[in-house]
Amino acid sequence: MEFSKARRILIDGSMARGGGGYTYLVNIVPRLAALAPESKFRVLVRTDRLAKALAGVPNVEVLALPPVGLFDRFRFLHTQVPRLAEEWRADLYFSVGEYSPIRMPCPVVAAFRNPNVFTKMNQGWPLYQKFRLAALRALSWLSAKRADRIMFVSQDSADWIGDEMGLDQNARVVVHHGIDAEGWRPETPGPRRDGVILSVSSVYRYKNYVRLIEAYADLVRRRPETPDLVIVGDDQDPVYQKEMVAAREAVGDVAECIHLVGEVAYERVKEYYHSASLFVFPSYLETFGHPLLEAMACDVPVVAADIGVFREIAGDAALYADPYKVDSLATAMEEGLTSNEHRSVMVERGRKCVEHFSWDRSTTRLLGVFRELIEVKAPVAEPSRIGAGDPRRIRQVAVAASLATTTGAIRRQG
């Protein structure tokens, strides 16, 4: 997918800190640059790790911004980003997060990937976090009204988030994540018998790790020979992290078999998959679930929560369990560990499944969306519109950002 002439694409990754945002940017940006070699890409980031990972990519300029608080991030978004786009003469702005400026001199694509912002599910958040998420939801609503396209990473999330936000169907585009399957393959193919039970994902309460710990303890009491449980992921929810630690301590002697590893460099994550006999993804709320692809690419049998998006991604290549029932998770894990027939079938199906998900396919689809907006859609807005805006919407942004900052301060003080 090539543009008819060289284009300038401004990619805003300034809201990404780690986890899925990091994974997405380090995979998609180099491929965008490779598939559109005549174009220029400018990427905004706020972490040294991202800046280093993207440094040296041809026709990509990385602008490393200083780390700042939430209010300053949104102030930069709505005041400085439009000016950057205008001065650089950007042809399109792509926000990797749920937030984009109210006024821009070019077409806007925003990626809605964080389910926490949009769900009305009661997850037992502390009061400050409920206020913070309400503020972020208001800001994302303004982005949805301004953006020319909203990118979703699954049809499932396009349906439920799009409906929640009242988005027109024509404004929704689905661009699945991908994976470089060959880069994840183990040296020895096939399922492993002597590895650990693994789960990988950033720690949020919807990842359902407390229930996984309880299910694992239940399984160990039935089958003492059950391998250790290893949970890998950066801490994005300190309150829930404490609940995980408490759940581990509550299982008595089994606790020594449960390892809460914390954050691991992206380049090292595959080492954990290659040492696993079973992968478990108990999350009850996701927009995609990239670790599913990583596990299947590594020939690891998968047990997944029985939710729509996991069915969309893994199909018949996983065993499914009710994420709200400890015994259901324990039973599925036991079957995934002990049934040689199921294990071999799941590995074979997993290999076929990941063939449908590649970063090249994802990038080509994304470039198609860019091309449609730049070359087919209406001409770009006049620069004089920058900052004009609807005063009511500007006030909404200010109030929401202020509220989000206030709740963040409450969290730090607490």
What does this structure look like?
- The protein has 17 helices and 13 strands.
- It has 414 residues and is of the alpha/beta class.
- It folds into two domains: 8-178 and 359-413, Rossmann fold (3-Layer(aba) Sandwich); 181-354, Glycogen Phosphorylase B (Rossmann fold), CATH 3.40.50.
- Strand 9, helix 10 and strand 10 form a beta-alpha-beta unit.
- The chain is globular.
CATH architecture of the largest domain: 3-Layer(aba) Sandwich
**Tally of helical segments:** 17
**What is the CATH H-level superfamily of the largest domain?**
Glycogen Phosphorylase B
In total, how many domains does the architecture comprise?
2
How would a textbook summarize the main sheet? 7 strands, parallel
What value does the average pLDDT take?
89
Q: Write down the overall geometry.
A: globular
Summarize the amount of helix as a percent range.
Answer: 40-55%
Order of helices and strands: EHEHEHHEEHHEHEHEHEHEHEHEHEHHHH
Strand order of the largest sheet: 3-2-1-4-5-6-7
- Global structural class: alpha/beta
Low-confidence stretches: 378-414
Count of beta strands: 13
Q: What is the percentage of strand-forming residues?
A: 5-15%
